[in-house]
Amino acid sequence: MHPRTSLAVALLAVCGAAQAQQPAASHLANNLSMCAGCHGIPGYKTAYPEVYHVPKLGGQSPAYLVNALKAYRSGERLHPSMRGIAASLSDKDMEELAAYYGGNAK
Amino acid sequence: MSRLLAIAAALALAGTVQAAGNAAAGKSKAAQVCAACHGPEGNKPTAPENPVLAGQHRDYLVKALKDYKSGKRNNAVMKGFAAALSNRDIEDLAAWFAGQKSDLHFQR
Question: Does B15 touch chain A (CB under 8 A)?
Fold first, then answer.
C-alpha cells in the first residue's frame, strides 16, 4: 500500500473509532415531557368511556416499566395514547425512562 | 315517594360501598393469590418484572385485573390468576393494595 494511502486509511479508522465512542444522545428530557402530559398531573384520569386514574410511576420496578412500554409498542397491550407514544421510543429510550421513574425515591 | 327515595338512596350507598371494595377481604385473598409474586402487601415483588402494587390507584388496579380477566391485557401468569377472581374479589384486592405503603408515588 502506498504510504499516503495507508495514512489516509489510518486516519479514517481513528475518526471512525472516535465517532463510535461518542455516546448516543439521550432523549430523556424530551421523552419525559410526553409522559408528564398525563402521568405528571396529580389525580389525572383517563377519558370516557373508561375512566380511571393513570398509574403512579415513581418508585415502580424499572423492569416492569420497560416491559409495559414494549408491550404497548408491539400492540400487545392496548391503549391508544400509550401505543402512539411507545411507538416513538427506542429500547434505550424506554430503559432511560424506566430508570428515571423507578430510580426516584419518594 | 319518600320511601322510594330512601330505597334508591340506600341502593346507591350500597353500590358505593361495594365499589370501594373491602380491604380486609382483599388482604386474605391477596395472601392466597398475589403474595407469592407481589408480596403480601404488594410492596415486595419477588422478581424485578413484577410491579409494585402497594399505593397504586385503586381504580387502576381494578382496571388492570379486569383487563387480565377479560383477556384484553394479555399475560400468561396474570390471566390464570385473574380468571379465578370474581368482580367482588377484584374490588377487594384493589382496596387492599391501594391502601398499603410502598415507594410507589406520584412522579412528575
Answer: no
Q: Which of B63, B74, B105 sits opposite A106 (nearest CB)?
A: B105
Chain A closest CA to B90's CA: distance in Å? 15
Among A36, A55, A76, the residue with its CB nearest the CB of B60 is A55
Question: What are the structural domains of chain B?
Answer: 2-98 (1.10.760.10)
Q: What is the pLDDT along chain B (108 residues), one digit of tens a residue?
A: 566 666 555 555 554 444 689 999 999 999 999 999 999 999 999 999 999 999 999 999 999 999 999 999 999 999 999 999 999 999 999 999 999 999 999 998
8 Å CB contact between A8 and A76: no
Domains belonging to chain A, first-starting first, are: 26-103 (1.10.760.10)
B29 close to B21: Cβ distance less than 8 angstroms: no
CB atoms within 10 A of CB A46: 16
